[in-house]
Write a structure and sequence with these properties.
- By secondary structure, this protein is of the alpha+beta class.
- It has a single domain, classed as Alpha-Beta Complex (Nucleoside Triphosphate Pyrophosphohydrolase).
- Helix content is 21%, strand content 28%.
- The strands form two sheets. Strands 4, 5, 6, 7, 8, 9, 10 and 11 form an eight-stranded mixed β-sheet that branches. A three-stranded antiparallel β-sheet has the order 1-2-3, with helices on one face.
- Strand 2 and strand 3 form a beta hairpin.
- The radius of gyration is 18 Å and the shape is globular.
């Protein structure tokens, strides 16, 4: 199984130095030059998960500003609707991180037995040509009673997060269109597996 990089960032940095890489930029995301031909962005790994509210036959998504999506030919102004996600920047298990992010970003209270890990829990590289980040994909099957019923701005204010929730019918979510790869991947998985999911 591929390791998940969180608190072990320094271990990987030391490994890169040992292999002759040069750090061009330090910080939350480190930029490395490998062999005068390639650049690599080093970041912590992450998890992305779909919140499926079975009694309502809906999914619960997040809507927030993502500056990397700014596009002069797109009127969305960097706003994107996507599945919930978070980074392994603390010593948490996959299920613990999912529970934390579900609460912070979507007002959902979940238990670990409601988490379905895709790909046997193995993280997958997001863009191996440029970034070290790997992501665990999951689906969380919940009941509407586990969702906070007050609409407000979610997210961690100290991290600059301003997240609103988007409720969407399962079939509409499956049909798309989708704006990012993780959301598309989870929609594709749901289309193939929705009839086999546990009922609440």
């Amino acid at each position: 199984m591929l390791s998940i990089k969180g608190s072990a960032m320094k271990l990987f940095s030391d490994f890169f130095v040992k292999n002759g890489w040069t750090m061009l930029r330090d910080g939350f995301a480190k930029l490395w030059e490998t062999d005068k031909k390639h650049l690599v962005v080093q970041t912590t790994d992450s998890v992305a998960f779909l919140i499926l509210v079975t009694d309502l036959n809906q999914v619960l998504l997040t809507h927030q500003y993502r500056p990397a999506t700014l596009d002069p030919e797109d009127s969305s102004n960097g706003m994107i609707t996507e599945v919930t996600a978070g980074r392994f920047d603390a010593k948490l298990t996959v299920e613990e991180l999912i529970a934390q992010e579900a609460s912070e970003e979507a007002g959902a209270t979940i238990s670990s037995d409601q988490v379905i890990l895709l790909n046997d829990g193995r993280p997958v590289y997001l863009s191996p040509g440029i970034i070290t980040e790997k992501q665990v994909l999951a689906v969380v099957v919940v009941d509407s009673k586990q969702i906070e019923d007050t609409e407000k701005v979610f997210g961690v204010a100290s991290e600059g997060e301003q997240i609103t929730r988007v409720w969407m019918a399962v079939d509409k979510f499956i049909d798309g269109p989708h704006q990012d790869m993780k959301t598309f991947a989870l929609a594709t998985w749901l289309k193939a597996n929705k009839n086999d999911l546990p009922k609440i």
